[in-house]
């Protein structure tokens, strides 16, 4: 069968021929006729089978047959993603370039001013995503009262994304008399229920059973945990047979993580998902289609608009939890009779998903063995690893060091115990004793060779009374009062006698061999050791050094 046998007008036949179409695909053969006749249609076909042309060609022919005053919106195509909306609008531009049909596309993620300007100029065919469409309807820029054809494309994905309420809000704005077309890559029970409520005695076009695989696609699964997936993916992508690869992840964060891991392995990749700006998504998709980018990482939602001819590999980094989604994913490769490869990674927790897929497709996915270890790193990868190590070292050196033990820092110790002011009010005798003892331990030899001499006219340290005795405080007595009382009592005869008695007890109980190397200066110099022993040999009967002086 040829396109001319489908009763298309010459302008469309010319555009189709220039696009390189030789004969219609199965869904085009079955769908174009009923749509030209004005019937509702329920179409189920795998992605890449040409279903966009199956509804775009008859819609263009019907709109070209009549004109409406004021150029209102006469055909509305509702799609779940921006990429798919852009792709459909490009198809209308390609097929209708010889027809006086105006078309435009609206979607979120970008400014609405250019889209509003296009709507105000007049549009025959509008392709839109649900969110932006409802927004512009609420602002009064979109009026659907004269709509003739309503197309709900990728209906299964629309439900998966939670757009069912937005879709129903759009349907509520449509006129009762219209033609409805519903297309879906898969046909679960929920889609059939929606079709029953939307379509009136539709023509049903089911080119293949909903879970039938493209025979040209070779499938395989690697049993790998998360860490093994990270190692295995770069090894597969380095294979020279991988000309282009579309990698699917379950989450947006997972897509970003895969791109980062591949960059560390020296493989350039870009991600598209709902959190990316429209400019970033279009840049990544354009580079991938042009062959400038070998690897594209995508989520299921964003991938609905990806139509790349000659895609060699599809890799399921995460298995989908909906088996129909697996069918849609691998349908991106092996199009138009070309060979394609679909590989999947399956962790222990994903094995139930694999069983659901095999149950739906009624065939076992061959299990492949992962290579033990990958090839050696290339120079680019080695440079990347070195840079990563340098960055890691720099981050470690710049990291704040843990606080050192302030037990050896007197200032910190004072602050910890309540501040310098509090420490100053404490008895100073004990602190000085600790400091002097530490000094004696550091320089014992120097102290032994040259004992400290008392200043002329000044009592030696051995003669000075202990500060603890001097600062005996009475309850409720302040520091100044205690100092005045201590000075007043220092010169009394009773006090002097007590001091001498305390020093005699001290000298009698001390080991004088130790005193020779201590910080305490001797009370009297001796010419020889014999004189020293003679002076102290009498014990308590020996002369008092203070009195002799």
The quaternary organization reads as single chain
Work out the number of β strands.
Answer: 14
Shape: elongated
Q: How much helix, percentage-wise, in residues? A: 40-55%
Spatial separation of the terminal alpha carbons: 137 Å
Outline the low-pLDDT stretches: 374-427, 442-452, 465-473, 507-519, 538-549
Overall radius of gyration: 46 Å
Account of the protein in words:
With 549 residues, the protein is an alpha/beta fold. Helix content is 46%, strand content 11%. It has 26 helices and 14 strands. The strands form two sheets. Strands 3-4-2-5-6-1-7 form a seven-stranded parallel β-sheet, sandwiched between helices. The termini are far apart.
List keywords for this structure.
seven-stranded parallel beta sheet, alpha/beta, disordered C terminus, 549 residues, 11% strand
